[in-house]
Structure formats: C-alpha cells, structure tokens
Amino acid sequence: MKINTAKFVISNTDVKKCPQEKLPEYAFIGRSNVGKSSLINMLTNHGSLAKISNKPGKTQLINHFIINNNWFLVDLPGYGYAKVSKKQRSKFQDIIFDYFNKRLHLVNTFVLIDVRHEPQKIDLEFMQFLGENGIPFSIIFTKADKLAKTKVVKNVKNYTNEMLKIWETMPKYFISSSVDKTGKKEILDYISEINQTLIK
Ligand code: GTP
Ligand code: MG
After folding, report:
1. Cβ proximity of 34 and 115 under 8 Å
2. Residues within a 6 A CB radius of ligand 1
3. In the CATH scheme, what is the homologous superfamily, with its name and number, of domain 8-198?
C-alpha cells in the first residue's frame, strides 16, 4: 500500500468523541518507549505525525489519524506506565477498555513489543485481555536494527515459546525498525489486504 495522505483528525479521552465515519480502524499500542510514535511516522512517511497530538499538559489518549481518506490509524497510550499513580493508571485502563469495547470498526490491533527484551508480564496480560474480548491483534517487534539478525530471530523464537504457553498458535507478527524501515511494506500490505476483504 502506498500512503498518499496521512492527517491528524482528533485526540481525546472520550470514546464517544472519536470519529463516527464507518471506516476500518487499526490501533497501535504498547508500553511507553517501545517505539510507537517512530513506527507510526515511519509507516506514514511522516516526520512528526504521531507527535502532532502531543499537546503538553493535557492527557490526550486516543489519537485518530486518517490515512488515504479510507482508514483510521489510532495511536493509543502506552499501558503500564511505571511513573503514574495507581489512580491515574486505572483511569488509563478504563479508557483503553472502553475504547476496545466500543469501537465497532476496529479491525486489528498491533501490539508493539521491543524485540530486545524478555517477554514481559504486562504485554502478555494485555494480549490475553484482547483474546478474552475477541479483539484481533498482531504483534510488531520493534527496534530490530538494535540487535544482530541472529539475536532477533532468537528473541522472536523465545517470545513465540512464551506465547505458546498461553495460546494455541502464535499470532501473526512483524519485525520492524523505524531506522531502516524494516517491516514497513509487510505491515502496510497486511492492512491493505484486510481493507480489500472489507470492500463490499
Ligand atoms: P512514548 O510516546 O514516550 O510512550 O514512546 P513511543 O513508544 O512513542 O516511542 P518513540 O517512538 O518515541 O521512541 C522511543 C525511543 O526509541 C526514541 O529515542 C526513538 O528514537 C527510539 N526508537 C524508536 N524506534 C526505533 C527503532 O526502530 N530503532 C532504533 N534504533 N531506535 C528506535
Ligand atoms: Mg509516542
């Protein structure tokens, strides 16, 4: 898929205020610092798309972007921030849960995982939540350029083994780097393929 246009639409904390157009929606989520903004900018050929919504001083959680005027890309907040209070964290969670429960045109969620790290409980639990709620998801392993290729393969294999303790099969996954654009074509083609199947 070629990205011709990528525009910021709205940023808010209230799911009711999200765009109402019946367009397929793809959400991106992961822990803070996993490389979400970089990935979104890499996918959309945009230097700073994902940062446009970062209005300082405001808790902006759900960020909608419209791509090629025919699908929404959604930048969701990182879950499991270590630095916020318990109360604040549970507010984040409520909003995220509300988002997943109410966005009827959500087609797929991309869960970002830093390929350098051992499987983390919080990511595994989050994917379990998606599974239990019947929300389709794929994994994007980020920052692949930071490791030797053999180490990437080894870590992905390790992650797969961990997932298979919970899941019958490994979900679809991608390996990416925002630095050398690894995975860009595969991820965009995957979205494009799904979009094709949705055209009536
Ligand atoms: P928050 O919005 O703060 O939660 O972070 P984020 O998940 O949006 O991550 P962001 O894209 O801001 O990247 C975090 C840091 O990782 C930055 O210093 C990026 O330059 C770096 N980074 C992100 N993706 C890559 C990548 O693919 N390769 C390398 N080498 N660095 C990356
Ligand atoms: Mg970010």
Report:
1. no
2. 32-38, 78, 142-143, 145-146, 177-179
3. P-loop containing nucleotide triphosphate hydrolases (3.40.50.300)
